[in-house]
Amino acid sequence: MVYRHSAAAWILHQSLQSNANAICQIKLIFQASIYQLWKERNACIFIAVSSPPRIIHHALDRLLRDLLLSIKAVPPPAQSPLQFYWPP
Predict the structure, then answer these.
(1) CA 24/CA 21 separation, integer angstroms
(2) What is the distance between the alpha carbons of residues 68 and 30, in angstroms, rounded to a whole number?
(3) Cβ distance 59 to 42 under 8 Å?
(4) Least enclosed by CB within 10 Å: which of 26, 62, 70, 83?
(5) For residues 74 and 81, is the Cβ–Cβ distance under 8 A?
(6) Spatial distance between the Cα atoms of 84 and 21, rounded to a whole number of angstroms
(7) How many Å apart are CA 59 and CA 36, to the nearest integer?
(8) Other CB atoms closer than 10 Å to residue 34's CB: what's the count?
(9) Cα–Cα distance between 81 and 24 in angstroms, integer?
(10) Distance CA 66, CA 48 (A)
């Protein structure tokens, strides 16, 4: 199946050129962004409330940090996904 000009093609292209942490980050960012936009859309439709972009960005950042914090580094001395996302 050929994807042209799509997020799926970009993710596939990146996964061929990146390391495991970068691949994980790209997929999680894409998934979390779609989820956050879906939540915002539902809030607008069903309760007539919309959030400013900075609030959505903060919620997305918090969601990504929580997801990355739950992933263990493999092997243990390796850099954790959260450290890759937010370097010290």
Answers:
(1) 5
(2) 13
(3) no
(4) 70
(5) no
(6) 7
(7) 8
(8) 11
(9) 8
(10) 28
pTM for the predicted model, two decimal places = 0.65
| Contact criterion met (CB below 8 Å) for 30 and 11 | yes
b/e per residue, 54-80, with b = 16+ CB within 10 A? eebeebbeebbeebbeeeeeeeeeeee
HSE-up of 35 (CA within 13 Å, CB side)?
A: 13
- Whole-angstrom distance, CA of residue 6 vs CA of residue 17: 17
pLDDT digits (tens, 9 = 90+) for 25-78: 788 888 899 999 999 999 999 999 999 999 999 999 899 888 878 877 666 666
What's the pLDDT at 55? 93
Q: How many CA atoms lie within 13 A of 45 on its CB side?
A: 6
